[in-house]
Amino acid sequence: MSDFSLINSLPGAGLGTDGAIDRSAMDRQWVEVLVDCSGTQGLYTYALPPDLAVRVGDILSVPFGTQQVGAIAVRLLDTRPTELAADQIRSVDAIVSAGFFPASYWALLNQVAQYYHTSLMQVVKVALPPGLLARSQRRIRFLNDEKTPLTAAARHILELLKASKTKDYSWQFVQRQVQGAHRGLQELLKQNLVESYLEPPATMRPKLRQAVTLISTEGQLSERYREILEVLKRQGGEMWMTDLLQLCRTTTPTLRKLEQQGCLILQPREILRAEGLPEVGEEGAKSLTADQAAALQQVQQATGFTQILLHGVTGSGKTEVYLQAIAPILQQGRSALVLVPEIGLTPQLTDRFRARFGDQVCVYHSALSDGERFDTWRQMLSGSPQVAIGTRSAIFAPLPSLGLIILDEEHDSSFKQDQPAPCYHARTVAQWRATLEACPLILGSATPSLESWVTSHQEVAQSQYVSLPKRILNRPMPKIEVVDMRQELRDRNGSIFSRSLQTALHHLKETEQQGLLFIHRRGHSTFVSCRSCGYVMECPNCDVSLSFHHTHENAKPRLRCHYCNHVQNQPPHCPSCGSPYFKQFGSGTQRVMQELERQFPDLTAIRFDSDTTRAKGSHRALLTQFSDRKADLLVGTQMLTKGIDLPQVTLVGVISADGLLNLADFRASERAFQTLVQVAGRAGRGEEPGRVILQTYSPDHPVIGAVQRQQYEPFVAAELKQRQELQYPPYGQLVLFRISGGNAVAVQKAAERVAVELSKSTQYAVLGPAPATILRVAQRYRWQILLKFPSHDGSKVPNLADLRSLCGSTVSLTIDVDPMNLM
Ligand SMILES: Nc1ncnc2c1ncn2[C@@H]1O[C@H](COP(=O)(O)OP(=O)(O)OP(=O)(O)O)[C@@H](O)[C@H]1O
Ligand SMILES: [Zn+2]
Ligand SMILES: [Zn+2]
Question: Is the pLDDT of residue 224 over 70?
Fold first, then answer.
């Protein structure tokens, strides 16, 4: 019954900006609501009684089946949806709570739906936590005594309320006590004798977690059991079960056996919401450098919507500018929204915010459970001023009075959602939101995206450019040495570490400093192939090579697909020719760890990649270990590049830059430059100067030269020239269609039909159809078509429903506006 298609096919259901704000609600006779009851979320149309001035963002009560349920007014309509007959539409019953969400919030969601060509419902699903209304309760409160006689039911309700200590009851209770309560309530509401409101659930369900408590170490126990109990004892006799399992590398059934033997008990224990985050000390504002002060001033002078690109080199103190820009906003009773690429990667950043603003900070990201998301929402909706820090979906955080939005590391591609729909970019949505809220938007980066660079250099008051060209305390930028790995090979050094890096690693121990080793991608190029015939081991479901996984020295090697997670053993001989020379190639994190162990047994290293950081809180745990100097090296992938601020790191080694340089994407150079400058920027942030060793097989690549000189502007100028010639973003606009299905021929045919249809317009160039770089993923064949518009304004895409009808029922078509991932 829930109706998504309704939204797409609405005639003239234009941008929400005109909904409820400019036009009087009176000429709108229908309303679309988000019904939220017993697990089903959907958009439904209701009629508005003439005497009910409903506005977008109100919480309503509507008839739904045989019940009355809560609903959010999402959009007012002045025409009846054609597919519904007038007598099919039921009427809104009452306004439970007026202005629960600001109307601008719904305008934003509508704008997202329209620009990214998805239904409003899809947007609502990213934006709102599930069960928002279902857990809340409608209540009725006494306001005034009657002046004119009331009907029996109305009088009964009023007396009931007056007799209550709090002058207020739940609507459910009133309904049970009073016959004809519904009509009675209407009467009372009309005369303003009572009010109806929505109370968020008062007590949240406590969150429980399994805990293990030691009872006894007596009895006939095997060596292994004893060991587990010994560990538990050493930890004080009480631990969270997950921690014990991890520490002892044991399983739940083993613990259950120990429980049966009376050695320990397993029981759920309540954890408080704030737990899991360590205490942070309070911290005052730092006195700003001249550059920081100038940047802050520019932010504070902004009136209304202004987009400010804060271009500060690595270690220039951008975070301090954010903190001092936020402080006065909170004092004015308004809130701030801070978006970061990946929350798990930046425990340091959240700690700094909490040290400054304490409980006013709330963290919002997709790894939260539904319950936690819901709690955070309630806190936000309370309206008290706060700082919400979160990943891309936090751009939809319902902070009532926004004074500032910040995107840190604005160039990061994780701000873009590739799938599912809506494929939104949080930076684009942030621009709309800041416009709707008339507040400044700060985009911070050491390596701004070309999009933001171009915007910030337009001659308009609404976009500004601020730079922090120097590191804090005039600390030098790290020195970058480029090592030609081809020369190493010629000089008979077959190690993955160049001689330069080897010397630096030896030096690390002597000077008691720390280093980072960066590998382009987890398991990237650690494919298994035959050195006799060249056969490459591939995933049976996807057209990608399997990656070699080796958890520790003596463990059995496994092969894993990073797309569908297929796992299998490595065959001892080549399946194609039977050769025994069937081995892994490349240098993933694991390989580097093993080589370190072999060549530098004195150095300890922590592996920091998506395999070792899967568990909640593990980013923080590993980074803390490292900053406590429990290891000499941190070895990892992309996540090393993001915002790590450790003063004792003096050495950064890039094992091989080549994987980054050779991606088939027009943004490859931009990304490579950003990644390498960011990772280099982790070195020498403290008192000791930093040093970067960049290993590559293509030392003459223009990106390598630009990174070595650490000059952003000349690199960007050259890059922009190319983009302009080819009409790529930021000059032109791209729209990507992805076509996929289980049958290879059907997918290709559908892609061809869609391309023919698309070619009928002259507004854009059609690139493709072409098979995706990886044709098959999880048994689905994928083709794509790229539209290239010469400029960014007014790109019109043919009707999606028409294109979909060309695909047939077994092939799906999705649209990605401004795609970031063209693979
Ligand atoms: N005014 C200041 N006085 C002294 N120290 C400062 C000041 N401002 C910032 N710092 C310190 O300088 C270091 C670097 O700052 P921060 O992490 O904000 O840099 P950043 O510009 O965000 O760098 P990146 O882009 O590389 O993450 C931090 O340890 C911070 O505490
Ligand atoms: Zn072979
Ligand atoms: Zn696979």
Answer: yes
Of the pLDDT bands very low, low, confident and very high (cuts 50, 70, 90), residue 406 is: very high
Which ligand lies nearest to the CA atom of residue 535 in the structure?
A: 2
Residues 227-257 pLDDT 10s:
898 888 877 677 788 888 888 888 899 999 9
In a domain, 671, yes or no: yes
Same domain, 633 and 774: no
How much is the pLDDT for 262?
Answer: 84
Is it true that the peptide bond before 420 is cis, omega within 30 degrees of 0?
Answer: yes
Where does a domain end: 102, 127, 152? 127
In which domain, by residue range, is 518 found? Answer: 479-522+587-720
Q: What is the mean pLDDT of residues 631-657?
A: 85
Domain edge (last residue) among 585, 603, 628:
585
Any domain includes 365: yes
Atom 8 of ligand 1: nearest residue by CA position: 317
Q: How far does residue 525's CA lie from ligand 2's centre (Å)?
A: 18
On whether both 567 and 617 belong to a single domain, the answer is no
How large is the ipTM?
0.94
Tell me phi and psi for residue 478, to 5 degrees.
-65, 155
Range list of H helices, 238-369: 241-248, 252-260, 290-301, 318-331, 347-357
Angstrom distance (rounded) from CA 658 to CA 518 = 12
Residue 469 included in any domain: no
CA–CA distances in Å: residue 650 to residues 244, 479, 519, 655: 35, 10, 17, 16
CATH code, domain with 31: 3.40.1440.60
Q: Tell me the CA–centroid distance for residue 780 and ligand 3, in Å.
A: 10
> How far does residue 321's CA lie from ligand 1's centre (Å)?
9
Residues 386 and 532 in one domain: no
Report the C-alpha gap between 355 and 282 in whole angstroms.
5
Query: For atom 16 of ligand 1, which residue has the closest CA?
Result: 317
pLDDT at site 757: 92
> Mind listing the pLDDT tens digit for each residue in 117-153?
988 878 887 887 666 665 556 788 999 998 889 999 9
What pTM, to 2 d.p., does this model score? 0.76
Who lines ligand 1 at CB under 6 A? 286-289, 292, 312, 314-320, 446, 472, 643, 645, 681, 685
Atom of ligand 1 nearest to the CA of 644: 27
The verdict on residue 551 lying in a domain is yes
Mind spelling out the 3-state secondary structure of 197-211?
EEECCCCCCCEEEEE
* Cα–Cα distance measured from residue 736 to residue 681, given in angstroms and rounded to the nearest whole number: 34
Q: Are residues 384 and 303 in the same domain?
A: yes
**Closest ligand, as measured to the CA of 564:** 3
Annotated binding site for Zn(2+): 530, 533, 539, 542, 561, 564, 574, 577
